[in-house]
Write a structure and sequence with these properties.
This protein is α+β, with helices and mostly antiparallel strands. It folds into 3 domains: 171 residues, Jelly Rolls (Sandwich); 48 residues; 56 residues, Arc Repressor Mutant, subunit A (Orthogonal Bundle). It has 10 helices and 12 strands. Its EC number is 2.1.1.-.
């Protein structure tokens, strides 16, 4: 089921201050709490007066037909087509009014500046990265894949849990910084994770399976940025960090079921750190091809 369907994306106007991006509720929404906001919107033809966002905003149209638009980005006229499958990006602080002549659907994602500092391993005192708006439609298959994954997460298909969500957002922030940054940024590099660091990370995960193993916490343990840790872990193991955590939790659940045949499965799910019983069932079935209850009956 989708997350609560209420507005999570807001704009600032001179006349009304902070107001919802659109008055009607979105088709689906997710995020919030200052980290990010996602909305799937279906809106009629219309217009918005001059407005700004408090965060960077990605828009990916998902309708069937192109829609004509007219805008003024910081006073400069911009016009053309809003094309399905082709992104538009508005940087934080830029101002525009806009008009569109037909109904449209789109996926919207806001990215606050703090997310970029976390993704790139920078302190809050670091000079914020400068991003440049790009309203002309452009294709980015990697970014589209990431945004659709965030959409699936927001719609309730939360197989990876919070670590998966954080990994997606970190990847989006890192990609956006290089795609829309004012000049190329040199990100942290490293082809692989040293063996001792890999062993340390595995040990920490195994010892804290029942805890909230979020990306920021794991990066702090390894003294690395979330983006760098995620990238070198995948280069080393061929799998993402959240996939590895799920695999560890599934293996521990498998071991506990075999070792404690009378222990309630809900207790095992909690002990292994699964966010919900439904996630426990889905992950266990992914790795072992059967539900936990089916495995227990086979013993």
């Amino acid at each position: 089921m989708p997350d609560d369907q209420f507005s999570r994306i807001f704009i600032r106007t001179d006349e009304l201050g902070l107001i919802p991006y659109f008055p009607a509720p979105p088709v689906a929404s997710g995020g919030g709490n200052g980290s990010y906001a996602f909305e799937h919107r279906a809106v009629d033809a219309g217009s918005l007066g001059s407005h700004t966002f408090d965060a960077h905003v990605l828009m990916l149209p998902v309708g069937q037909n192109p829609v004509r638009f007219w805008s003024r980005l910081n006073g400069r006229p911009v016009a053309g087509l809003i094309e399905p499958g082709r992104f538009r990006f508005l940087a934080h602080g830029d101002t525009l009014p806009t008009t569109w002549d037909s109904p449209l659907q789109g996926l919207f994602l806001t990215l606050p500046q703090a997310l970029f500092a976390q993704a790139l391993g920078e302190s809050e005192d670091t000079r914020p990265i400068e991003l440049i708006s790009r309203l002309t439609p452009h294709e980015d298959r990697l970014l589209a894949h990431l945004l659709h994954a965030i959409q699936a997460y927001a719609m309730g298909q939360r197989l990876g849990g919070r670590l998966f969500e954080q990994s997606l957002l970190t990847a989006v922030a890192a990609h956006v910084s290089t795609t829309y940054g004012a000049g190329r940024r040199e990100l942290l590099r490293g082809p692989s994770l040293p063996r001792w660091k890999h062993q340390r990370l595995r040990q920490f995960i195994q010892e804290h399976l029942s805890s909230d193993l979020n990306l920021n916490a794991l990066a702090a343990v390894m003294n690395m940025s979330p983006y760098h840790l995620g990238r070198v872990f995948r280069a080393t193991t061929g799998k993402t960090l959240w996939q590895f955590v799920l695999e560890c939790r599934a293996k521990e659940a498998h071991r506990l079921i075999a070792l404690h045949p009378n222990l309630p499965l809900s207790n095992i799910a909690e002990a292994c750190g699964f966010e919900s019983y439904s996630q426990f069932i889905a992950v266990f079935r992914k790795f072992y091809g059967q539900r936990p209850s089916e495995f227990r009956r086979s013993l």
